[in-house]
Amino acid sequence: MSKILVIAEHLDGKLNPATARAVSAAVAVKPDTIDVLVLSAEVDAIAADAAKIEGVSRVLTVTRAENAHPLAAVLAPQIAKVAAGYSHVFAPSTTFGKDVAPRVAALLGVAQVSDIMSIDGSHTFKRPIYAGNAIVTVQADPAHAVVATIRTASWAAAANGANNAPIEPLSLDIAVPTHTRFVELKQGKSDRPDLQSANKVVSGGRGVGSKENFEVIYRFADKIGAAVGASRAAVDAGYVPNELQVGQTGKIIAPELYIAIGISGAIQHLTGIKDAGTIVAINKDGEAPIFEVADIGLVGDLFKLIPELEQAIG
C-alpha cells in the first residue's frame, strides 16, 4: 500500500502554489492516500487552503512556536517523525524543498530523488540531468521510503476549491535542534506577479543594454500583466537583481507565455524555460539560438518593436 506525505510550502500564512504541483505528482503515483503536512506557528489558514486541493486525503498540522520560520534543521526531524509509515515523502523542488528534503532523507537513511518530472511507476521516475540536456530514469528501492523533490515546472497545479479534506492536528513528542536560529528574511517586494508562478513572463537579456534601458521590459510586462525575468548575462551586468534570473542557475519556470527580449538563448537559459507553453523571442540577431526553440520570432531592434507591440495591444 502506498501512502504519500506532501510537505506544504508556505510563507506569511499563505500556501505556495508549488504545493499543489507536488500534489499533482503524488496523484500520478496512484497511491491509496495523499496527506499534506503543514508545519507552522499558526496553521489554520494554511491548512484550510491545503484542504481544498483536489486529491488530498487529509491535512496534518504541527503547531509549534519553533515552526514560525521554515528552518530546515528544525522542520526535518518533525517531518521524519511524521513520515513513519509513509511510502513516499514529496516536497516541491524550490529553495524550500531543496533545503529540507535532503535532511529528511538523511534522517530516514535513504537516498533522495531530485527534480522528478514524470512518474513511470510507484518507484520509477524520470528526472533531468546535464542541465536538462538528458533525461534519466531512476528506480528507487521499494523496500525503503522515497524522499523526493518535485520539479514544479513539469507539473500543473492540482485543482483547488472542490475538495474538503479533513484537518488533523498532530502532537509530536520530539525535541527540535536549537543550534539554528532565524535572523531575518530579505526579499524583493513587487506588485508584479510572482516569477515562478506567473502565467506570463517577460524577460530581458544583455541586448537590453543597461539598467536604465530595462525600464522598457518593466513597462511592457506591466502592460500585459506579466512577471519580469532576466538572463544571467543581464543579472551579471547589474541590470536587475539576482532574484529575477531565469535558467539553470536561476529559476526554473513554466509560464503559458514566455517572451524573451534581447536574450541570445544560451543552453543554461533554455533549461529554465523548456516547459513554457508558448515562447516568443525578440532579437536583432536572426541567428541567435533562442529562435531554435521559439514558437514565434521577431528579428529587429527591440527598442522599435516593443513600442509597436504596446501600441498594437492598445
From TrEMBL:
InterPro entries hit by this protein: DHS-like_NAD/FAD-binding_dom (IPR029035), ETF_a/b_N (IPR014730), ETF_a/FixB (IPR001308), ETF_alpha_N (IPR033947), ETF_asu_C (IPR014731), ETF_asu_C_CS (IPR018206), Rossmann-like_a/b/a_fold (IPR014729)
Pfam families: ETF, ETF_alpha
Family matches, as SMART domains: ETF
Domain Electron transfer flavoprotein alpha/beta-subunit N-terminal: residue ranges: 4-186
Alphabetic keyword roster: Electron transport, FAD, Flavoprotein, Transport
Family under the similarity heading: Belongs to the ETF alpha-subunit/FixB family.
Protein name: Electron transfer flavoprotein subunit beta
Upper classification of the organism: Bacteria, Pseudomonadati, Pseudomonadota, Gammaproteobacteria, Lysobacterales
Gene behind the chain: etfA
